[in-house]
Amino acid sequence: MSIAAIVTDIEGTTSSIAFVKEVLFPYARRHLRPFVEQQRQQPEVADCLQQTRAILEQEQRPADSDEQLISALEQWIDQDRKATPLKTLQGLIWRQGYQQGDYQAHMYPDATQALRQWASELPLYVYSSGSEQAQKLFFAHSCDGDLLPLFSGHFDTRIGAKTEASAYEHIAAELQQRHQLEAHEILFLSDIEAELDAARAAGLNTVWVCRGEQPASARHPVVTSLAEISLEKL
Q1: In terms of C-beta density within 10 A (0-12 exposed, 13-18 middle, 19 or more buried), how is residue 190 classed?
Q2: What domains are there in the chain, each with its CATH number?
Q3: In this model, does residue 91 exceed pLDDT 60?
C-alpha cells in the first residue's frame, strides 16, 4: 500500500455542508453574544477577545470595548470569515449545544464506514477550518455515534490557510515525525479543488470528493463517495 496515512476535510467530504451552514453556524450566531457576555472572564474566552482585538488593530479598526469586539465577531460570522478566535469561540459554543443534546453532527454513511475501515489499517487525521475543539466535538457527537477514537490527531487554521501549500508541508513534517513516512504517502481528501492543489504542491496524494455536480475535467482523482477510494491503487 502506497498510502500510509489519511488526512480528511469535514464539510462536504465526510459530512453535509448543510449541517454546518444550517445548524451549527446559526446556533453560534444566536448564542455568541450571551455566551461571551457570560463567559468573558474565562481564560479561553478572554484570550479569544484579545486575539480579536489584535486583528482589529492590525486592520486599523481598534476596539475600545467588549461590545465592539462582540459586534466584530458577529460580523465575521455573517461574512463566514476564517478567523482563529472566532473559530475557537464557535467551538466553545457548539460544545455547549452538543452537551445539551441540541443536535448531532451529520455523517455520510459511506464516510463513517470508510473511516472505520481505514482506522484499522493506518492513522487518520483531520484538517478543517473549524477549530480543533470543534472537530473533536463534531466526531464525538455524530449521528453514527462517537467516532473521535478513530482519529490520531487534528489540524486547524493555526497551522495556516487550507489553500496554502505551507500548511500541508507542516502536516507532512508532523506526520513524518510521528510515523516516519514521506509526504507522498499521505492522502488528503477534500471537496475543494484549491485545497487539493495546495496539498499536491506540498507533495501529498489527493482525492477530490465531489458529492454534487461532477467536474468535466480535474487535476485530481475524483470520487462521489469515500467508498470508491481504493488505497492500493493510489
Answers
A1: buried
A2: 5-16+106-233 (3.40.50.1000), 19-99 (1.10.720.60)
A3: yes
